[in-house]
C-alpha cells in the first residue's frame, strides 16, 4: 500500500476529485487505481476565503513497486507504514502474579486494557466512583456547590479527561503507532469513526462516559478486576538483592493489604496526597514546569468569523478553534491551552476551599461561547525552588485565593476583558454571559495570580487580537483560576525498564507521573507501560 500526503482540494470539492488527484499524483491509468482510503484529513485555513482540505491517503494500486521506484524522490509518496497493534507478550498459563494499577484515567484504562487483552488479568484500584455515579457527584457540585473530594472532575473512572473537550490529538513522537491503537479502541467502544482520520479529533464528554463503561466491561470480560472507591493510602517497600527498594504491596484506605511486585501508578495530575505519600516513602520525585492562568470566553461566532471568514460554521469545519502564543516582555510565555470551541467553563476543584477551572464541550460543540485557558509558564527553579512538592503548594495557594475572591462559596472570580486590561473592577456582565457553574462573581482579578502572570496576560491579549480580530472584546469574560494544566511533579523512571529510577516494581505513567499531557498521550503512555509490565511478568 502506498501513502500519499499533502493532497489539497477545495473545501467543497466533489468526492470524485480525490480519485482524480491520486491518479494525477501517481501518473497512472484510472484502471490501475484499485482502492484508496482517507488516513488523515486536515484543514488549511491560512486563507479564510480559500480554505483547503489536506488529505493523507492510503492507496492500493497495480504495479506498486514500479510506482514507488518512479517516485522515490517525491517526499509525499512513500510505502504506507504498518499501523496495526502487535502485542509484545502473552501471559503464561501458570501466571501466579497479577499486576495492580492505581487509577483509571486514560493511562490506567489503556494499561489495564492491553494487559487484559494479553491475558494478565490486572487489578485496577480507583479512588473515585464508576463514571455514571461520578457524573452525578460532579453535576451536584456544579449545581449545588457540594464538593465530594473523592468523586469529582479530577477523581473517578475515566479521569480528568472525561470532563473535557475529549481532544484526541497530540504532538508526541509515536514511532510504534500506539495512538492508532488508542483511536481504534475508542471507535470499538462507540466513538465516531471520523476520529480515525480527522486531524483534530474530539469526542465530547457525554460520549466519553458510555465509551469508558464499555471499555471497563471489556477488561472485566477478559479477567480483569476493577474496584471503585478503593483509595491507596500507602505502599510497602523492601530492599532487593541489589540494595534497591522494591514494591511489595499496597495498603488501601480501609486497611486492606494487596500484595504485588508490579505496580502501575496512573493517578493523574491532581493526586496530591498520593504524591506526598510517595515522597515520604523515598520514591524519587522531581519538580517540573506547569502553567497557570485564567479561562477566557468569547462568543463562538466571533471566533468562527475571525478564523473561517465566509466559511464560518461550514459543516466540515464546525466550530472554529485557535492556538496562540506570545512571549511577553517580562520574559514569560503566554499561550492558549485546551481550547474548547462551543463549550463551557467547568468547576474542577478536588480539594475543599479551592476553586479550579477547566474547559469542556460536547461532541456537537454548539454552545454559545468559546473558551480556552490563557496561561503563563511556571518554572520550579525560578518560582518555587527547593522542594520537589513545592509546585503543589504553589497551585494550592492560588486555588484557595480564587476561592476567597469568589466569596468562599465555590463561585469563581471573574472580570470582563476590557476591565482586566484597564485594571478596574467589573460590576456587571455585558453581551457575554459566563458558562461557569455554580456562578461567576465579578470583581478584579489583579490579586488572583502572581503579578508576573497578570502582567504577561495583560500584554498578551491585545497581541492575540492582532491574530484573531475581537479577541480583546471588552465584554469577554476571564474566569479564575486555571492551575491544573499539567502535573507539578515528575516521578522519574528508567528509560529502558520504565520503572521508577529508585523503586523496582513501580511503573509511573500518564499525566500524574509527568509523562503525558492529554487523553491521547496518556493512553499511549499507558500502553507503553503495559508492555513493559507484560514483558517483565512473562520473562
Write the SSE topology.
Layout (H helix, E strand, L loop, with lengths): L1 E9 L5 H11 L6 E12 L7 E10 L2 H7 L6 E3 L20 E3 L3 H12 L5 E3 L5 H14 L33 H11 L16 H17 L3 E3 L4 E8 L5 E8 L4 E3 L3 E3 L6 H9 L5 E2 L2 E10 H9 L16 E3 L5 E8 L3 E4 L9 E4 L8 E10 L1 H4 L6 H16 L6 E5 H6 L17 E3 L8 H15 L11 E6 L6 E2 L12 E2 L1 E3 L10 H20 L1
Parallel strand pairs: 5-6, 5-11, 6-7, 9-23, 11-24, 19-20
Antiparallel strand pairs: 1-3, 1-4, 2-3, 8-9, 9-10, 12-22, 13-18, 13-21, 14-15, 15-18, 16-17, 19-21
Description:
Helices cover 28% and strands 24% of the residues. The protein has 539 residues and is of the alpha/beta class. It has 3 domains: 2-79, Alpha-Beta Plaits (2-Layer Sandwich); 100-285 and 491-538, FAD/NAD(P)-binding domain (3-Layer(bba) Sandwich); 289-482, no CATH class. The strands form 6 sheets. It has a 7-stranded mixed beta sheet with strand order 14-15-18-13-21-19-20. Strands 7-6-5-11-24 form a 5-stranded parallel beta sheet, covered by helices on one side. A hairpin with a 7-residue loop joins strand 2 and strand 3. Helix 3 packs parallel to helix 6 (205-221), helix 3 packs parallel to helix 13 and helix 5 packs across helix 13. It is globular. The protein starts with a strand and ends with a helix.
Amino acid at each position: 500500500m502506498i501513502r500519499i500526503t499533502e493532497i489539497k482540494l477545495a473545501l467543497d470539492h466533489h468526492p470524485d476529485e480525490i480519485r482524480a488527484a491520486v491518479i494525477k499524483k501517481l501518473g497512472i491509468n484510472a484502471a490501475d487505481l484499485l482502492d484508496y482510503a482517507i488516513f488523515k484529513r486536515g484543514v488549511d485555513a491560512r486563507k479564510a476565503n480559500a480554505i483547503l482540505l489536506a488529505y493523507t491517503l492510503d492507496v492500493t494500486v497495480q504495479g506498486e513497486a514500479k510506482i514507488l521506484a518512479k517516485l522515490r524522490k517525491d517526499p509525499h509518496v512513500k510505502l504506507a507504514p504498518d499501523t496495526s497493534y502487535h502485542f509484545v507478550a502473552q501471559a503464561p498459563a501458570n501466571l501466579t502474579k497479577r499486576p495492580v494499577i492505581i487509577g483509571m484515567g486514560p493511562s490506567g484504562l489503556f494499561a489495564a486494557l492491553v494487559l487484559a487483552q494479553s491475558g494478565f488479568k490486572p487489578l485496577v484500584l480507583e479512588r473515585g466512583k464508576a463514571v455514571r455515579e461520578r457524573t452525578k457527584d460532579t453535576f451536584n457540585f456544579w449545581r449545588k456547590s457540594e464538593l465530594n473530594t473523592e468523586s469529582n472532575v479530577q477523581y473517578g473512572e475515566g479521569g480528568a479527561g472525561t470532563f473535557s473537550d475529549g481532544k484526541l490529538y497530540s504532538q508526541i513522537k509515536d514511532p510504534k503507532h500506539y495512538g492508532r491503537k488508542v483511536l481504534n479502541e475508542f471507535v470499538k467502544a462507540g466513538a465516531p469513526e471520523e476520529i480515525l482520520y480527522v486531524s483534530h479529533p474530539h469526542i465530547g464528554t457525554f460520549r466519553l462516559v458510555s465509551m469508558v463503561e464499555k471499555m471497563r466491561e471489556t477488561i472485566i470480560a477478559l479477567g480483569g478486576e476493577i474496584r471503585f472507591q478503593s483509595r491507596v493510602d500507602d505502599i510497602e517497600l523492601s530492599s532487593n538483592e541489589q540494595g534497591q527498594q522494591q514494591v511489595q504491596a499496597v495498603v488501601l484506605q480501609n486497611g486492606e493489604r494487596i500484595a504485588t511486585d508490579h505496580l502501575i501508578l496512573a493517578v493523574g495530575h491532581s493526586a496530591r496526597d498520593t504524591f506526598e505519600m510517595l515522597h515520604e516513602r523515598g520514591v524519587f520525585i522531581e519538580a517540573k514546569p506547569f502553567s497557570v492562568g485564567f479561562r477566557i470566553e468569547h462568543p463562538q461566532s466571533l471566533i468562527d468569523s475571525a478564523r473561517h471568514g465566509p466559511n464560518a460554521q461550514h459543516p466540515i469545519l464546525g466550530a472554529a478553534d485557535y492556538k496562540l502564543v506570545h512571549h511577553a516582555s517580562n520574559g514569560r510565555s503566554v499561550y492558549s491551552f485546551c481550547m474548547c470551541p462551543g463549550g463551557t467553563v467547568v468547576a474542577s476543584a478536588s480539594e475543599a476551599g479551592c476553586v479550579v477551572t477547566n474547559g469542556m464541550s460536547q461532541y456537537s460543540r454548539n454552545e454559545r461561547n468559546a473558551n480556552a485557558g490563557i496561561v503563563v509558564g511556571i518554572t520550579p527553579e525560578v518560582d518555587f525552588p527547593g522542594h520537589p512538592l513545592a509546585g503543589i503548594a504553589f497551585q494550592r495557594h492560588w486555588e484557595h485565593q480564587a476561592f476567597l475572591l469568589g466569596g468562599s462559596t465555590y463561585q469563581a472570580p471573574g472580570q470582563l476583558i476590557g476591565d482586566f486590561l484597564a485594571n478596574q473592577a467589573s460590576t456587571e456582565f455585558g453581551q457575554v454571559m459566563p458558562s461557569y457553574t455554580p456562578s461567576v462573581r465579578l470583581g478584579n482579578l489583579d490579586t488572583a495570580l502572581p503579578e508576573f502572570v497578570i502582567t504577561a496576560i495583560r500584554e498578551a491579549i491585545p497581541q492575540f487580537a492582532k491574530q484573531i480580530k475581537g479577541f480583546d472584546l471588552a465584554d469577554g469574560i476571564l474566569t479564575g483560576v486555571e492551575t491544573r494544566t499539567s502535573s507539578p511533579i515528575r516521578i522519574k523512571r528508567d528509560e529502558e525498564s520504565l520503572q521508577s529510577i529508585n523503586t523496582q516494581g513501580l511503573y509511573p505513567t500518564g499525566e500524574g507521573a509527568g509523562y503525558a499531557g492529554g487523553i491521547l498521550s496518556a493512553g499511549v503512555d499507558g500502553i507503553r507501560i503495559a508492555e513493559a509490565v507484560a514483558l517483565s511478568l512473562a520473562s
